Amino acid sequence: MTGTGTGTGPFDGLPEDHRERLTALSREVSWPAGTRIFEEGGRADRFWTVLAGTVRLDLYVPGSRPVVVETIGPGQLLGWSWVCPPRRWHLGAEAGGAVRAREYDAAEVLERCARDPALDHALLTYVIGVVGHRLRSTRTRLLDLYGPHGDEGPR
Questions:
Q1: How far apart, in whole angstroms, are the C-alpha atoms of residue 26 and residue 108?
Q2: What is the CA radius of gyration of the chain?
Q3: For 10-25, how does the pLDDT look when each residue is reduced to its tens digit (9 = 90+)?
Q4: Where are the beta strands (DSSP E) in the chain?
Q5: Peptide bond into 86 cis (omega under 30)
Q6: Above 90 in pLDDT, residue 46?
C-alpha cells in the first residue's frame, strides 16, 4: 500500500472485507471542471476517492491566487483533514476537469472505525501515508516557488 494511490483503488491495500465495508458507506458524485470542492479552513466532514478526472489541491497565499501544490487523479484519496480535530481542510480543492468520485461521510466512517479496530487501524495507516506524501509534495512545490535558488541549500 503506497498511501498515494497508483491508478488503482486507493483502498486496494486494505483487506477485502474492509474495502467492502467502506464502499457500502459511499455514494458516487461528480463535479464539472472548475468546481470548488472545498476551501482551506472549511469544515472537513467528508472525503472522496477519485474515479475519473483530476483535482488540483491548492494553498492560500495572501495577496495572490491559491498556489496549486499537487494534482491528484483516479485511484487517489481526496481529503484527509476529516481524520483529526478540529476537522478543518488544510488545503483547498478544485476540479481540474470533469471529476467522478466516491463520497464518504466522515462521521459514518469514524463511527464504523470506532466499532471495528482492525478497520480503524488499516484505514488510518493508509491515510497517514497520504498525509506524509501530501506534506512532502507541498513542501517541494513551495520550495520550487519561494525557496532559494542556486547552490544555497543545506549540505
A1: 10
A2: 16
A3: 787 788 888 888 888 9
A4: 26-31, 36-38, 46-52, 55-59, 67-72, 77-78, 92-95, 99-105
A5: yes
A6: yes
CB atoms within 10 A of CB 139: 12
CA distance 130 to 134: 6
Quote the pTM value. 0.81
Residue type, 52: A
Only one residue has cell 474492509, namely 18
- Beta carbons of 50 and 74 less than 8 angstroms apart: yes
Count CA atoms within 13 Å of residue 99 on its CB side. Answer: 29
DSSP designation for 26:
E
